[in-house]
Amino acid sequence: MTRFLKLLILIPVGILVIFLSVANRDPVLVSLNPLTNSGADAASSAFTYSVPLYLVLFLALLIGIVLGGLGSWFAQGKWRKKARDEKSEANKYRQRAEDAEKKVLELSGDSEFAHPLIPAPKP
User: What is the average pLDDT value for the chain, to the nearest integer?
Assistant: First the structure.
């Protein structure tokens, strides 16, 4: 079922991406130097590139997704730390309970040390 839903979503998105790429394949100038003036100086700059418009759009989308994911990951860091701390605390208490259970079984093995509220193991 999930495979069908993925295909139902991914096929139209893929077709849309192909149409967007074909419609915006004309080259545009991308200047990475903000200090040059637009015009002849910008076209001859070492940091100016002629790339297809769809590539600029997809790169901007990809950078936005990565930055959004990083921001979300850093924002959730306190919750991951809390989960790690609580997991280690739970493991500590589980170990203490197992140690106490072993001790009770050791003590209840001898009849003179058997506790009246804790039944001795049956042979």
Answer: 84
Tell me the average pLDDT across 103-122: 65
Partners of 51 in the beta sheet?
28
pTM for the whole thing?
0.59
C-alpha dihedral sign at 37, 43, 44, 46: positive
Residues 6+ away with beta carbon under 8 Å from 70: none
Residue with tokens 């730390």: 81
CA distance 34 to 19: 32
Q: How far apart are CA 107 and CA 67, in angstroms?
A: 60
Tokens 């790169």, residue located: 59
